[in-house]
Write a structure and sequence with these properties.
7-stranded mixed sheet, binds pyridoxal-5'-phosphate, globular, alpha/beta, 452 residues
Length: 452
């Protein structure tokens, strides 16, 4: 007899019998059944067994303003009554999409004033692929088609998104990447830097971009796409030398730069966009996640004026989604941006929450299992090791730690042997204290388990 409540068992039965889950081991899911999340408030989730869980991942990096914001609910219901759906195809538009495009242009970097809306981040990156090739064709350089991405980058799960990304597990399934997409190494110093000092490794990793441009030929390269900070790859914050060197290289070659801001955008780094933080000058930025705080699906691409000027002269752009700029999603995004602005949440991240999280996270460095702690804004990572000097790992430690976290009321994600967090932007200092206390306890339990 299971000690789970009958409702939990019933839902788990539905999962086994009817549901194909994203990014899940199906056999394992069948054997154990999913944890069923039933409600949420602030930074907390509740499961069907009544457990209260601190959501250290803001859902999937998206619930910026926290759960239970009535203003977002009201914005959605108002819009559903007024105009639940109309499309933006064939010379029509509606107020929420247009007003949202303006609100995004207001917070986007200078010179980025137009938005193409999609239903998700993946669709945003599909749009990027088509837009950058369309752009070069219109400029009379149709050979410029190749897009350079990075190993272990994440750009979504559609065919183009997974191809632009550099996740080997995704490439193995379905013959990806598609032709015309190549990858360079990632700036992951702790994992791959070896004996090089971080700054030297950062320069080396950046130089791989130039090497690849020369190998493919500048005349064949359309764009370079990268997350300012890799999220799903393990909260990889590049060495300080990396972005300046990349910028230098981008200045030397006539290729477009796409910043995938799906995680970093809308305040996660303490600036509106990580492109502001690193002073990047992207030509296109992919957005999603924090755009609506995850209350409703929406993504898009913000496009620089020079690029818009070219595509404006190109006749039809034969691309779009039924739900591009969906009015209800747009109304929620507008309200979400209003909350972020009026409550000063982005500045709060920069001046209060991020410094406090960093201070508390760094205290974990004395733990025997911890090889490195890094954070920027409200993105954090803890590297689990057996030996702090050689960086040798305990294979499987992170998955064990993740389970201990769940069982002790905290969602932390495991990537390889790295524990990562990205809590809601509104997390209080007391909640950060709770997060760190639970994390330390779970590191202790994990150490005990791996030393068994
Ligand atoms: C989540 C993510 C995507 C994909 O967004 P979806 O809405 O899941 O399609 C793309 N890029 C980055 C950096 C992401 O983190």
């Amino acid at each position: 007899m299971s000690d789970k409540n009958p409702q939990t068992l019933a839902w788990q039965g539905l999962s086994a019998e009817h549901h194909l889950a994203p990014f899940s081991d199906y056999q394992q899911l069948k054997d154990k059944g999913p944890r069923i999340i039933t409600k949420a408030q602030g930074v907390y989730l509740w499961d069907s067994e009544g457990n209260k869980i601190l959501d250290g991942m803001a859902g999937l990096w998206c619930v910026a303003v926290g759960y239970g914001r009535e203003e977002l609910v009201a914005a959605a219901s108002r819009q559903m009554r007024e105009l639940p759906y109309y499309n933006l195809f064939f010379q029509t538009a509606h107020p929420p999409a247009l007003e949202l495009a303006k609100a995004i242009a207001d917070i986007a970097p200078d010179g980025m004033n137009h938005v193409f809306f999609t239903g998700s981040g993946s669709e945003g990156n599909d749009t990027v692929l088509r837009l950058v090739r369309h752009y070069w064709a219109l400029k009379g350089q149709p050979s410029k088609k190749v897009i350079i991405g990075r190993v272990n980058g994440y750009h979504g799960s559609t065919v183009a998104g997974a191809s632009l990304g550099g996740m080997s597990g995704m490439h193995e399934q379905g013959d990806l990447p598609i032709p015309g997409i190549v990858h360079i190494p990632q700036p992951y110093w702790f994992g791959e830097g070896g004996d090089l000092p971080p700054d030297e490794f950062g320069v080396w990793a950046a130089e791989q971009l130039e090497k690849k441009i020369l190998e493919v030929g500048e005349a064949n390269v359309a764009a370079f796409i990268a997350e300012p900070i890799q999220g799903a790859g393990g909260v990889i914050i590049p060495p300080a030398s990396y972005w300046p060197k990349i910028k230098e290289i981008l200045d030397r070659y006539d290729i477009l730069f796409v910043a995938d801001e799906v995680i970093c955008g809308f305040g996660r780094t303490g600036e509106w966009f990580a492109s502001d933080y690193y002073r990047l000058k992207p030509d296109l930025m992919t957005i999603a996640k924090g755009l609506t705080s995850g209350y409703i699906p929406m993504g898009g691409v913000i496009v620089r004026d020079e690029v818009v000027k070219v595509i404006n002269q190109g006749g039809d752009f034969n691309h779009g989604f039924t739900y591009s700029g969906h009015p209800v999603a747009a109304a929620v995004a507008l309200e979400n941006i209003r909350i972020l602005r009026e409550e000063g949440i982005v500045d709060e991240v920069k001046t209060r929450a991020a410094p406090y999280l960093q201070k508390r996270l760094l205290e974990l460095q004395d733990h025997p299992l911890v090889g490195e702690v890094r954070s920027l804004g409200l993105l954090g990572a803890v590297e689990l090791v057996k030996d702090k000097v050689s960086r040798e790992r305990y294979p499987g430690a992170a998955m064990i730690c993740r389970q201990f976290c769940f069982d002790n009321g905290l969602v932390m994600r495991a990537v390889g042997e790295t524990m990562i967090i990205a809590p809601p932007l509104v997390i209080s200092c007391a909640e950060i204290d709770e997060l760190l206390a639970t994390a330390r306890k779970c590191l202790d339990l994990t150490l005990e388990a791996v030393q068994g």
